[in-house]
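Risk register update: the risk that structure generation would not scale has been downgraded. Supporting records follow, first protein first.
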Amino acid sequence: MGDCKGYSLPALYLDWDGVINFFGSRSQYRKRSGLSYMRRGSASPRQNTRDRLSHDTSFFKAYPQNWSAELLRKLAALPLEVVFLSTWRDSFPELIRATQWNDLENYRILDWTDGPKGSEHSGKVPALVADQLANPRPFIWADDEAHSFYTEADRAMLQGTPQLLLAPDENIGLTMDDYLAMVKFLDGLRG
């Protein structure tokens, strides 16, 4: 694939839960993902994340992780900067260790502020838009629930920026079809 002409490295804004960490059963995953090499483990959030989410006592224990090592390898090989945009925020080093995503080299964590109660994930949108306005470039946004907050006004601010939105089923996470859509999107930028 190589570099995308005329742009800095495209961004992959990546949620974790419901996208990489899927919630369905192994049989659901095997039947619907098109990927193999599923693993299970757990990770605990850092103290900063715990303090911010102190109302949610589930974050004080290890949180189950179900992922595809094949998918992680494929994502790490794409010509993208992975930008984590998830409630895990500063705990991504723990997730990367827990999932043994050792070949992921080009990533950063985008901080964001929760939206109002009941729509907490809406806070991801202003962070993504601000990041794009500061460094305009093509992007892929994979999130199982925040796209509904990405309004026409937000899209208008980023008009002309090539973008691919992926909203996986939280029970399966990203699939082989989603990965192939990313490859096609990136190939289309090379023209």
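Supporting record for the second protein:
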Amino acid sequence: MRSASSTLRTDEPPSGGPCITVWNLDMAYGDVLVQRDLNFTVQPGEVFIIMGRSGCGKSTLLRHMVGLHPPARGDVLYDGESFWRSHPHSRARMLRHLGVLYQGGALWSSMTVAENVALPLRKFTELSAAEIRRVTALKLALVGLAGAEDYYPAELSGGMQRRAGLARAIALDPTILFLDEPSAGLDPVSARLLDDLILDLRDGLRATVVVVTHELASIFGIGDRAVFLDAETHTMIAAGPPATLLKETANPAVRSFLTRGASEGADRSTRRATAAVDPEKANGAAREA
């Protein structure tokens, strides 16, 4: 399989093409390198997955892509236009087309659900109060929270908080949605319902969706393509459709992640079973391993 980091290696970022291009991106906090040489594209209308083990830099990459943290090197392009090399006014214009769901929903605890969703409408539009109430009710209905306008975040379940955060993320009808660990901590049923909602919103808004996650059910259930960020080598070591990566990758880190370490788990289970029957044989196998 072709190395994921071997693409787009030029001295200047490409123009035109995909709706998102991450070009020669290095991420660092001071002298601490997080990831380097990140190169990938996101095509219009797809659900693109950023995956990897905890601490590899997935959420940091999202912060670079949505303008919250400048890269140490490289750039992010939207429809061929440089984000980090652009004037602040141009960046603000590009950001108006993005919607972001942060981890846990990131709702303002002192505001009602309706007030949270209405916040970007009040800040970035000239809609009247009545129009804002109408749009807010529509967005909440789209995520299955009709009638929850007057609740506070603390009165909602974890899944409902994510849905409220998603309603706020789509308040301005973005063309690109960024979702940071949307189903983390949810039970399997709630996570599946949220995945279904993400696909419905993608189709209804005709949006492109970028999802940061390590949840395999979401990766395989909704992901069209994915990149794998590796914490040890500090770069991306695989890219492609998740099912294809599972089938074809020869990289042990990627395979272990996509199978939840099934082979290692099987070896441990075998050793435990052997130990229960024949402790001497188990000790010998452990020494050989």
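DSSP finds eleven helices and ten strands in the chain. On this basis the risk owner (M.S.) recommends closing the item.
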